[in-house]
Write a structure and sequence with these properties.
about 300 residues; mainly alpha; MetI-like fold; flat
Length: about 300
Amino acid sequence: MKKTDTKAVIKQESVTEKAPKPVAQVFIWIFLIFWTLLNLFPIYFMFTFSLKSNAEIFGENIIGLPREWLWSNYSTAMNTGKMWLYFLNSILVTVAAIAISIMAGMMATYAITRIKWKMSKLTNAFFMLGLTIPIQASIVPVYVILSKASKVPGLNMIFGLNRYTTLIIPYAAFSLSMAILICTGFMTEIPFDLDEAATIDGCGFFRTFFKIILPLMKPAVSTVGIYSFLQCWNEFMFANVFISDSIHRTLPVGIKELSGQHTTNWGPIGAALVIATFPTLIAYLFLSKKIQASFIAGAVKG
């Protein structure tokens, strides 16, 4: 009994020694609060920036709250700058690219990881090569392909320059490699017994994928979705080069068009930046837990 009591006392003392001291806790909380404010400051600055006049932005009141809250900057950005049209175009292009990248990535991962065939590892390595190619390096060959497709009768109706598919297909293609990489780590953790049980029940590859595997991949779907969303929503170079008309223009390019040649009213530009940025923050807030779960998947085995 005495030995047990001695061990318990030693264990309790070691636990109390490892616990942080009150003074250390105070400094930790001060640092965390400072770090939080430091990260929230750009959002605060951008929001107050969007409600100020040029005079306040350039010297009179740079950091403080607006003296006059110019909510009219948002109406100016949405109507005069056609931000509502660019916003809808960005939503259309982004949602379509995300849907294609998720479905293609899931099906490719299923074929690579859960179906036995000779070229599966080579195919996976081929897809992973896409991670090494910067999207900017492909702008010239993609532009040549699109410009030639614009001259082909019939094909130019759905594929070519100044089309929604001009951005949807490249965006989905460049998101595919990362989608497969994310899904591979998660799909390999799903027991293969489920596939065997589904096969015994008479399910083929497609039915097993849609009925068994896909419902278990929700965290990975969230991660691929938010990654594709960030890449497609904020992409500027493809949208600026491949789209020349205002009908199919997306939000990043539309914000650039708000700046004038000689004078610029910066308040509406700040409003447009808020309109472009806040959907990304809201999407991450709702999907952050599933994203973290997807990144952890595959880290621990056994």
